[in-house]
Amino acid sequence: MLVQRQVFTLPSFTTVSGRTLKDVRIGYETYGTLNAARDNAILICHYFAGTAHAAGKYDESDRLPGWWDSVIGPGKIFDTDRYFVICSDTLCCLPVFNGTTVTTGPATVDPDTGKPYGMDFPVIRYEDIVGVQKALVDSLGVAKLYAVAGPSAGGFQSLQWSVDYPDMVQRVVAVVTPGIGMEAQYLATSDYWVRPILNDPAYMNGQYELDKQPRQGLMEALRIATVSAMTEPTLRQLGNLDPADPENPPEKSILNEFKCAKMVGQMALASSMAMDANHYLYLVRAGQLFGIEEKLSKAKAKYLFVPVATDTIAVPAMSESAVTKMRVAGLRAECKIMQTPGGHMDGLTIVHMVKDEITAFLNSD
User: Fold this and answer.
1) Annotated catalytic residue: which of 46, 53, 279, 344?
2) Among 27, 62, 219, 288, which is most exposed with the fewest C-beta within 10 angstroms?
3) Does residue 311 have an active-site annotation?
4) Three-state SS across 319-352?
5) Is residue 1 in a domain?
6) Choosing from 200, 276, 311, 346, which is the catalytic residue?
7) Residue 99 in 3-state DSSP?
8) Residue 249: domain span
9) Which residue is catalytic, options 152, 162, 190, 272?
10) What one-character DSSP code corresponds to residue 145?
11) CATH number, position 139
């Protein structure tokens, strides 16, 4: 499936904090066809470090397809022979320098100054991310969403949609999502993820030049986040306890590395080259401010939570607690736990394992 990146521009957008941003731009992709009744649209929301490139390839020669290609396409869970699927870059999209992402955030130019916003960019919330997406969806002529779905932070977006625009959202599929609001453990974990950036001297309280990123801090932050999302079987595949360099084994010097640790570091460094440190911090803060429990009375959707049994970030108990609270609020909600070994990452890579369960949910009244 070959796809194209498109760009949506919003002349102005006012954030929850009251700041008005001009010329807000986000990239997006669509898959499938909007039907005549305009009632077959599904919005897919990307994970923390993701982008709008959820499925397909831009060119046949591309090494990999979009990040949720296993579930988006003809005959798949989000069947593009049946549904019109939309996915957008978010505000403060993390891989802002990857060459295809289109986003508005600290690393983009403020039209009023001609310079990057930097720390002058307002703190955003998921209400803001979803508000910009709502304008995009409206521009496509979609008045009702058959479903909103996404993994991890994409689940946060999906849940926010259901309470901010309840008349538009019929179904929510929240995969490996840490519940419906911030909890102390998740807050502490996400705070741990940002400390390497804040402690990097090159960060300069966020006033760094874009070409002088706090690279070491960003890389170490990504290393921590990556390991948090993996499990023993996954890490074992990266080299287990083998030495990174057989001629310089770890038992000879504390400066010598194990292979799995070095591989994680290389992955983090490679990812960091397309990212902006402030975007990372802004997205983490948006997650820390997330919470919809007080808005549940507004919701009209039905919900399916899909946690992974081995996930140490979005532990299944968070999804089970969310289901209980939703049912108390009179909403229809259910939970299907994936019994897989790969932890949080399984929510990105093998969701097709629960195709029957998600398809049944999408087909139900």
Assistant:
1) 344
2) 62
3) yes
4) HHHHHHHHHHCCCEEEECCECCCCHHHHHHHCHH
5) no
6) 311
7) coil
8) 187-283
9) 152
10) B
11) 3.40.50.1820
